[in-house]
UniProtKB/TrEMBL annotation:
BP GO terms, sorted: fatty acid beta-oxidation
Record keyword Lyase present: yes
Organism: Cupriavidus taiwanensis
Gene3D superfamilies attached to this UniProt entry: 2-enoyl-CoA Hydratase, Chain A, domain 1, Lyase 2-enoyl-coa Hydratase, Chain A, domain 2
UniProt protein name: 3-hydroxypropionyl-coenzyme A dehydratase
Amino acid sequence: MSIDIKFDGPYAILTLNRPEARNALQFTMIEALSYTLDQVAASSARALIVTGAGPKAFCAGADIKELMDRSLMQQRQGAQLGQRTFDKLAKLAIPSVAVLHGYAFGGGLELAMACTFRIATVQARMGLPEIKLGLIPGYGGTQRLPRLVGEGRALEMVMSGRTVDAIEAERVGLVNRVVAHGEPAELGKAFMSEFIGYSRCASQFAREAVVRGMATTLEAGLEIEADLSTLAYQTDDAVEGMHAFIEKRTPEFKDA
């Protein structure tokens, strides 16, 4: 299998499993990823961890040999498949983290940017090198990167194709945290443990407020926040959380 999925308590652990090719993405892998994300969405998992098999790479990008000798329509359909699948990841109801070790290039970095969070070991290297092949990113890189690091830095990376290390990636906001080298799934679980103990309802509302607000004006974003915060007050978890605070005890959230 090129895409492996394992459920471990509150975690779903998704592994790109093609280490002999540094986990380069084939179209069949992207299709399998889409199906696997549906499995995750239907599960009781509270967080998704995305990793790559082997010590060399999270994902080295698209399989270049597979991209050659395709018609105009085939190329567009391939881009739309990648965008549609990565957008499914971005819109999961539960938070996700990409654990970057080794290389995360091209489609691999685009996959990571579709996750809610990214963490990287100090050995990680990442970039969008498509320009070096006479191409541009096609799986969302030109859109998600500027939203993470700003227009100027995104243009620099996309138009030069240069590689950034983990330290620079953290500094510019491409990754959330640089972590010590370790087993990727365990690194992901340690990071996501900070997010899984709260009400799933509140977590979804918080994330939706930020994501929707970033796509509009401040005025419209404040309206979105007002609507979603009002909805949050109507949940059983909000009642439990406030009572627990007054009673000086740990709340027992039921995701309702």
